Amino acid sequence: MRILVTAGPTREYLDDVRYLSNASSGKMGYAIVEAALKLGWEVVLVSGPVDLPVPEGCEFHPVVTTSEMREASVLLFSECDGVIAVAAVCDYQPKTRITGKISKTGEPVLFEMIETDDVLAELGRIKKSRWVVGFALEAQNPRENALQKLRRKNCNWIVLNDPSAIGSESNSVELINSTGDVEETWSGSKSEVAWNLTNWLSNRELSCQ
User: Fold this and answer.
1) CB 47 within 8 A of CB 7
2) What does pLDDT average to in each consecutive run of 10 residues of the chain (209 residues)?
3) Helix spans in the chain (H)
4) In the CATH scheme, what is the code of domain 2-91+112-202?
5) Domain ranges of the chain
6) Which positions are catalytic?
7) Exposed, middle or buried: residue 39 (CB in 10 Å: 0-12, 13-18, 19+)?
């Protein structure tokens, strides 16, 4: 089994110094990499900027922006059996990036924002017989929004968690299938949740037409 894992945040630069991002630590994604390696899987990790050591034994591809994550993930997915997409990509980017550093003027600064590439949706679109597990961090109507994300992005399963997972050492998740049923629930350290998820996957028939 050879899998792709995306992890960490992405950054979208306003100018050459400042950027938009989020508080993702990458801990959940990196824990999944380590768990998959313990199962004997080959793991390709595409990661945004995080303060974590690269798990020994994986194939590592560092990226910064959402477009870089999309480009690397699409290319590498073609050589994998499936993907666990944990990355918390930045959803918006400035329509125009300013060259240099924006100076303070005492006046409001306005930016026109546009949506970034949808990495998970692209992987779901091209998956063919491969499987896709997405992550959904939801605060309102969590199960409904997670199921909509699963269907919209053509995932086989979606892992639902909430904003309390950001930067935390622990997580509480629900694994939801394409019919909207909750297959499993797991709570504990992110390492424990990662181990439960990868073991559950290892016991499935993972050729998904």
Assistant:
1) yes
2) 97 96 96 98 98 98 98 97 97 95 92 96 96 94 94 97 90 95 96 97 68
3) 27-38, 66-77, 119-125, 142-152, 190-202
4) 3.40.50.10300
5) 2-91+112-202
6) 22
7) middle
